[in-house]
Write a structure and sequence with these properties.
- The mean pLDDT is 90.
- The protein contains three helices and no strands.
- Helix content is 70%, strand content 0%.
Length: 99
């Protein structure tokens, strides 16, 4: 079941199967609460598995190292822009686009 065109909002539950949604919608309060507990326990298992995943840790470290040059360049570029703006302000010229 898709969203109507032009509605502008994505259904935030679109990733859940329609079978799951229908089953929950047709459940009693206690059954829904039980599903909440099941999902919460599954999320705790997921977090633990992620924490113990050595391949993920290695990949994250590699990404951190690989991205360092870009983060450093971004930091320097931002500092350059801020410094140039400050110099313009000190000269009484304000920021770009203002005279």
């Amino acid at each position: 079941m898709g969203r109507p065109r032009g509605s502008g909002k994505k259904d935030k539950f679109a990733d859940l199967s329609s079978e799951y949604q229908d089953a929950v919608a047709g459940s009693e309060v206690d059954q829904i609460k039980s599903r909440i507990v099941e999902a919460a326990m599954a999320e705790e298992d997921n977090k633990k598995a992620k924490e113990d995943d050595q391949d993920l840790k290695s990949a994250q470290e590699q990404a951190k190292v690989a991205g360092e040059q870009y983060r450093a360049a971004t930091k320097i570029n931002r500092l350059k822009i801020q410094f140039c703006k400050r110099c313009l302000e000190d000269m009484g010229k304000g920021v770009i686009g203002k005279k």
